[in-house]
Request: fold
Amino acid sequence: MPRPSSAPTSGHAAIARVLGGEILSGARKPGSRMPSVDEMFTLFGVSRVVVREVTKTLAAKGLVTAKTKVGTLVLAPSHWNWLDPDVLAWRASVGLDVAFLNQIGEVRLAVEPLSAALAARNATRQDRQQMKTALRQMQDAGGDHRKFADADLAFHVAIGQASGNPFFRSFTAVIQVALLGILAKTSVGVIADEKSHARSTARHAKVLDAIAAGDEEAARKAMVRVIEEGLKHSGARRRAG
Reply:
């Protein structure tokens, strides 16, 4: 049976994170049984109430299913709710391989260019100001990868908001994991690549310019370029069509 990490696991959310990470990493295989109430107590020292909450949390995310007289079983990846922010965060915590980053990139390419096009149609003055602020923060980040990524995320969130479609705004968790993957693949803590940041900022500026001009097609194309360059920077590549 997989052992939990050494991190504090007194609350149901913390325990769900540990067990969820084990499922997503493959340490707990599909079809395997999750710990029983007694085993949970041994592993984590928690009550039946907490065990039920953990099971409910994991089940709501499509990671497990409870069966009478059998117990709680791990479900196959096809059942997992990949757009759940916790699932994405737990998956990121166990490692972001190139294949996963490529899959994230493909989803972004399917969603964000349209989001940018809609922003060109629907953005308000306040929306455009939020994008400008985020772009300026990207420029001011210099070689600080973390500040740059935070500003980059804020830029994409502002576009999702400006699209006028709440589903695009909820796509933030996917973008955040992609940016984390890019950070993990860059020279963080070694030599800050200010030239790379400047080129990325320039590509984002083209998206903003197209949105400000109300040019939907230009905004769409500019966003495709942003995402594809991000894929290259993370070590992933767009698959041939």
Notes: The chain has two domains: 12-79, 96-234. The beta strands are 64-67, 71-74. The mean pLDDT is 87. The chain is about 65% helix and 5% strand.
